[in-house]
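REQUEST ID: PR-0412
SUBMITTED BY: lab tech R.K.
PRIORITY: routine
TASK: structure prediction, single protein chain
INPUT:
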Amino acid sequence: MMKHLRILLGILLLLTETVSAGGREYAVRGPQGGLAMKVTLPDGMDPQTQRCPMVILMHGIFSSKDYNPMPAIAKSLAASGIASIRFDFNGHGKSEGRLQDMTVGLEIADALAVWEYAESLPYVDGIGLLGHSQGGVIASMAAGRLAGRGGDVPLGVVLVAPGSVIKEACQGGKFFNARFDPEDPPEFVRCWGVRKLGREYLLSTQTLDIYGTASAYQGRVCILHGDKDSIVPMWCSEKYKETYGDRATLTVIAGENHMINRRRDEVIRQTVSFFKSVFED
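STATUS: complete
OUTPUT:
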């Protein structure tokens, strides 16, 4: 009995996903329900006696914690002594909720719920945020929200091809291959015929104060963007750099596309180097 209890406590401590006879169990819940997540600790680390920094990894729209580049980033961070939590936003991957009901506001709430959970872990010594594509928008706005609260804030933020163009896309009535009336969108539109975006997303995204919210964060920011990105234009990252000023660096990765599958090693190298720097300061 005691052996089984110790195993269960270890599983909860490490934030692994568990499945019971009644369904999936979640350590963290957002507005739409449970959030599936995975933790990666540095090799050989004992979370009961040692401490380390942690990075919360946020995927893009229609993606998942298990899709490129998140698993590779988590692995490389661990090799440098940095833990990570990667999770599925509501309506994505193995998390609860419907994609059709997803909004940027709900994803920010998901991110803040994961932040609070990470802060509660006894082995975590400092937290950073990383977001790719729409996840970059969420990371930037979540950092700004945390700064506005006046409490603890991320020690550093990495934005990989941050997809702030979502606002202009919804204002223009064109999101990927979906077309709609931006003033009166339908109940949902289908992207590529299968992915549903709901009316609330299409309307609320048009009025987001992305850069204004992000600007409240006064810490260090690393912005990475491939010059072959055909999905998120470079001006998104340039606007972020302008917003943050000297607090941010913008590195253009020659030959990299939006999916981060051409020069992934360089993106990861820059990411790990940045977080090592901010955590060691």
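NOTES: The chain has nine helices and 15 strands.
REVIEWED BY: pending
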